[in-house]
Amino acid sequence: MTMTRRDAIGALAAMTLSPPLDALRWRLNTLLPEAVSPLQLQGGSTPTLAPGAPESPERMALIDAFRKQSAGLESLFEAHAHESGWVMPYRLYRPRARGRHPLVVYLHGSGGLGTDNLKQLMTGNVFGTHVWVMPEHQERFPCFVLAPQTDRGWMRYGPPDAGDSVASLRPGLGEGARLVFEIIDTLVRTHPIDPRRLYITGQSMGGGGVWHMTAHHPDRFAAAVICCGVASTERASASLGTPVWNFHGAADPTVPVQLSRRRIEELRTAGGHPIATEYEGVGHNVWLWAFTEPALLPWVFAQRRSG
Fold this sequence. Notes:
Largest sheet: 8 strands, mixed
CATH architecture: 3-Layer(aba) Sandwich
Number of domains: 1
């Protein structure tokens, strides 16, 4: 069966970190050592989390309330496109408050792949895009929100290896990431955006994209919020210059939690102070819990770069 480029990138982003990755020549014995456990990730100044176990009534009430309060907010995002070798659609939310404000960049997962300039705001991407534009949040934390859409992933991909049908990861800045950086540069130049307060977040394929982009430009973003990021070719320590809050479901069947544990351990060994939150019993859709943590936005907007 012949796969389209979009199908291949989607399949690669959704792969479990198990035997198929051997075809991508990733060394799991160094990437995901079994010795890494949740106990080794404790430490740091983790903000206070919402009370209750992940599936408790009080915690699920936050998720249900978010769904109701965020309904229809996608209409607040303007549709745009950026052309640089190819066309990247993107959505932009502009705050009503006057003055210079932060910019939040959201990288969608494989479910948002396409060119319709809408899927990156919908279905599984609702929580990661709408949380920033909710009226009560804009009142306290006014910000611009950028939601680009890619049809070819965020990282750099090459042709499939011999005998395989799935695109393979390659070192170097991805074309998707390159265009996102160009859009950010344009928006900072043309809008009242505070360049010291650029934030980036993403989930699954987009979470891997955040690790990728912060590795290539570790001093660009004031903070990164990452949910169950897929593997990338870069070492986590390359992102040392960016404050990170990483979320992962301990029961994730798509992107094993050991990948996040390894990244956090590597950052801490390199001298970083990332925050790592795992939810027991939660699967791949960890973003439902991450983006409804009451402490998330205050933590993000408290970060800023000097200069």
